[in-house]
C-alpha cells in the first residue's frame, strides 16, 4: 500500500485534516475492503470504498481519509473520500434508479426489501454494534441499543410502505377528485457522528419506503457502520442506485449535496449553524425541500413531589447517555427548591458511580467523546463555567491521557446569563438551576433559542400536563427521558429544526401531494 500522507498529530483528527482539503491524504491503492480486528477480538471485512450504484468503488481522485478510534486515538483504517465528481456519479445513479421501477413498483416490494435488510442487520447485530462502538467511542451496550432501534425502525418503515395512501375528495357529482402521495426523487442526506447508524436508518428508512432514492453522506469521523450497512443492503438485493453512500467532509462532499441541481430534497442532522448554511445552499441552488434536525439545550425538570430515585435515573440518562453526545440531551437541569439539595446530592453520587472508559469493558456506561475537537470544546466550557462563577459539583476534567474521555460533569448555581446555561456543549455536562414555581420554570425552560425536547418529573398529572402544554419543545418526556419509539415523531421547535423524523410524520418529508381533479359529464354520452 503506497501511502503519501504525512502522518503527524495534527492530522490525527479528521476535522483538522479537513482544513487541508484532503490534499495530503492519498492512497493510490487502498483496497476496497480491509480486514479489521475489533476490540472484542472478532475480525470482519470493512468496506472502504464509496457505495455508488450498488458497488463499492474508489473515489475518482483516489483520495482517502483516516478513521480514528476515539478510545485509543489510533488509526482504524482509511476510507475513500467523495468529492464533487463522485457525488455527481452517485446522484446520476440515484436519479436513474428513481426513474426505474423503484418509484413505480408495488410499495409492498419496497417494504419487503426493508424487512429483509432489518433481518440481515439482526443477524449481524454484534458486528454492527462493535463497529459503531469502535468508530464512535460509545459504550458497547449503547451501540447495541442503537442497533436494536435501527432494526425496529426499518421494520416500522416497511410497515408504512404500502399504507401511504391518498384519498378521494367529494366536491359534487361533476368532478372526480383524488389526492395521492408521490415520492420526491433523489434525496440528499447528511448525517452526524453521534448516532451514525441510527441516523442512517432515520434517513434511509422513510425515504426508501416512500419510493425515493438517496445519496447519503456520513460524518467524516464515523463513516464505518454506514458502509457496512450498505454491504448488507447490497446482499439483500436492494436495486442498484437506490442507496448511495459517500464518505467525506462537510465543506466538500456535504456542500456538493446541498447545492446539487438534481437533488430534490436534503435532510440534515447536525449543528444549528451547519443547518442554516445547508438551508441557504438548498434555497440558492434549486430550492430543495429541507428537513433539519438540529441542536438543543433541553430542560429536564424535577418537581418537589417527584420520585427522587427515578428522577435521578432520568437525569443521568438525560445527560450522560451516549457520552452526552445527544442533540436532545437533558443538559439544563432544573430542581425545585424543596427537593434541591437532596436531588443534587443524589445526582452527584450517581454521576460519580458511572463507569467511564474502554467502551468494550464490562460495566462501562460512558465511553469516549468522538473526537479531540469535542473533548477540547467540553473542557473549554468547564473553564467558562468556573470563570462565570458557577460551582463545579463533580467532574470537569479529562480522564487519562489516551482516548477522548471526560469525567461526567455537573455545575450548579448556574444562571441564565452564563454561556454554559445557553450554549449547546454536546458532552456529559449538566448545568443545574434551582426554581420555585411551575410558571417560573416554564419561563426559564423556554428561554432558549432551542426547542428540541424537555423532561418533567412529578407524580402530579396536573403539574405534568400543565407544564407539558406550555413547554416549547418537539418532545416532552414525563417521568422518563431519551426514550424513543419508532411511532413517536421527533424534531424541533424554534431553532432546533424543521420537520419531523420517525412516526407517520416522517413520511410528510419524503412525499409530496398530487391533486387530480377530473371533470365529469353527467349522464351517458
Ligand atoms: P459538527 O460541527 O459537530 O461536526 P456539523 O453539524 O458540522 O457538526 O456536522 C454534521 C454533518 O454535517 C457532518 O456530516 C458534516 O460533515 C456535515 N457538514 C458540515 N459542514 C457542512 C456544510 N457546509 N455543508 C454540508 N454538510 C456539512
TrEMBL record:
Keyword rRNA-binding carried by entry: no
Pathway: Alcohol metabolism; ethanol degradation; acetate from ethanol: step 2/2
Domain Aldehyde dehydrogenase: 57-516
InterPro entries given in the database record: Ald_DH/histidinol_DH (IPR016161), Ald_DH_C (IPR016163), Ald_DH_CS_CYS (IPR016160), Ald_DH_CS_GLU (IPR029510), Ald_DH_N (IPR016162), Aldehyde_DH_dom (IPR015590)
Active site (UniProt): 293
The keyword NAD is annotated on this UniProt entry: yes
Gene Ontology biological process: acetate biosynthetic process; ethanol metabolic process; lipid metabolic process; NADPH regeneration
Record key words, sorted: NAD, Oxidoreductase
Listed GO CC annotations: mitochondrial nucleoid
A molecular function GO annotation: aldehyde dehydrogenase (NAD+) activity
Transmembrane segments: none
Family: Belongs to the aldehyde dehydrogenase family.
Function summary: Minor mitochondrial aldehyde dehydrogenase isoform. Plays a role in regulation or biosynthesis of electron transport chain components. Involved in the biosynthesis of acetate during anaerobic growth on glucose.
Protein name stated in the entry: Aldehyde dehydrogenase 5, mitochondrial
Organism of this sequence: Pichia membranifaciens NRRL Y-2026
The organism's taxonomic lineage, starting at the top: Eukaryota, Fungi, Dikarya, Ascomycota, Saccharomycotina
Amino acid at each position: 500500500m503506497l501511502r503519501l500522507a504525512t502522518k503527524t498529530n495534527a492530522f490525527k483528527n479528521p476535522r483538522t485534516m479537513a482544513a487541508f482539503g484532503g490534499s495530503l491524504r492519498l492512497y493510490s491503492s487502498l483496497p476496497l475492503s480491509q480486514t479489521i480486528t475489533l476490540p472484542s477480538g472478532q475480525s470482519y471485512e470493512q468496506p472502504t470504498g464509496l457505495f455508488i450504484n450498488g458497488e463499492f468503488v474508489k473515489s475518482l481522485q483516489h483520495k482517502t481519509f483516516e478513521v480514528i478510534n476515539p478510545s485509543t486515538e489510533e488509526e482504524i483504517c482509511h476510507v475513500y473520500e467523495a468529492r464533487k465528481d463522485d457525488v455527481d456519479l452517485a446522484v446520476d445513479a440515484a436519479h436513474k434508479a428513481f426513474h426505474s421501477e423503484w418509484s413505480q413498483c408495488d410499495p409492498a416490494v419496497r417494504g419487503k426489501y426493508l424487512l429483509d435488510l432489518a433481518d440481515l442487520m439482526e443477524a449481524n447485530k454484534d458486528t454492527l454494534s462493535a463497529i459503531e462502538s469502535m468508530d464512535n467511542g460509545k459504550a458497547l451496550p449503547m451501540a447495541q441499543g442503537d442497533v436494536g432501534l435501527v432494526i425496529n425502525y426499518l421494520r416500522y418503515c416497511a410497515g408504512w410502505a404500502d399504507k401511504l395512501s391518498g384519498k378521494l375528495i367529494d366536491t359534487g357529482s361533476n368532478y372526480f377528485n383524488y389526492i395521492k402521495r408521490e415520492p420526491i426523487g433523489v434525496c440528499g442526506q447528511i448525517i452526524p457522528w453521534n448516532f451514525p447508524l441510527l441516523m442512517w436508518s432515520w434517513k434511509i428508512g422513510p425515504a426508501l419506503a416512500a419510493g425515493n432514492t438517496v445519496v447519503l453522506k456520513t460524518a467524516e469521523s464515523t463513516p464505518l457502520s454506514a458502509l457496512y450497512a450498505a454491504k448488507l443492503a447490497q446482499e439483500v438485493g436492494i436495486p442498484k442506485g437506490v442507496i448511495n453512500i459517500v464518505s467525506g467532509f462537510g465543506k466538500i462532499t456535504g456542500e456538493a449535496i446541498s447545492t446539487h441541481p438534481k437533488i430534490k430534497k436534503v435532510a440534515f442532522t447536525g449543528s444549528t449553524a451547519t443547518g442554516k448554511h445547508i438551508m441557504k445552499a438548498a434555497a440558492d441552488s434549486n430550492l430543495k425541500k429541507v428537513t433539519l434536525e438540529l441542536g438543543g439545550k433541553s430542560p429536564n425538570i424535577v418537581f418537589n413531589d417527584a420520585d427522587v430515585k427515578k428522577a435521578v435515573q432520568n437525569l443521568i440518562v438525560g445527560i450522560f447517555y451516549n457520552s452526552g453526545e445527544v442533540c436532545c440531551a437533558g443538559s439544563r437541569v432544573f430542581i425545585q427548591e424543596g427537593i434541591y439539595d437532596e436531588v443534587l446530592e443524589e445526582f452527584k453520587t450517581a454521576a460519580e458511580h458511572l463507569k467511564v472508559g474502554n467502551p468494550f469493558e464490562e460495566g462501562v456506561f460512558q465511553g469516549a467523546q468522538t473526537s479531540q475537537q469535542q473533548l477540547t470544546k467540553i473542557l473549554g466550557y468547564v473553564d467558562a463555567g468556573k470563570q462565570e462563577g458557577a460551582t463545579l459539583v463533580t467532574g470537569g476534567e479529562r480522564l487519562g491521557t489516551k482516548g477522548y474521555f471526560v469525567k461526567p460533569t455537573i455545575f450548579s448555581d448556574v444562571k441564565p446569563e452564563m454561556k454554559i446555561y445557553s450554549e449547546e456543549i454536546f458532552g456529559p455536562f449538566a448545568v443545574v438551576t434551582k426554581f420555585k414555581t411551575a410558571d417560573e420554570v416554564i419561563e426559564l425552560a423556554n428561554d432558549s433559542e432551542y426547542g428540541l425536547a424537555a423532561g418533567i418529573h412529578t407524580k402530579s398529572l396536573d403539574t405534568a400536563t400543565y407544564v407539558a402544554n406550555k413547554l416549547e419543545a418537539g418532545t416532552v418526556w414525563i417521568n422518563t427521558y431519551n426514550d424513543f419509539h419508532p411511532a413517536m415523531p421527533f424534531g424541533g421547535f424554534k431553532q432546533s429544526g424543521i420537520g419531523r423524523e420517525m412516526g407517520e410524520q416522517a413520511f410528510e418529508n419524503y412525499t409530496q401531494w398530487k391533486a387530480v381533479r377530473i371533470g365529469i359529464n353527467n349522464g351517458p354520452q
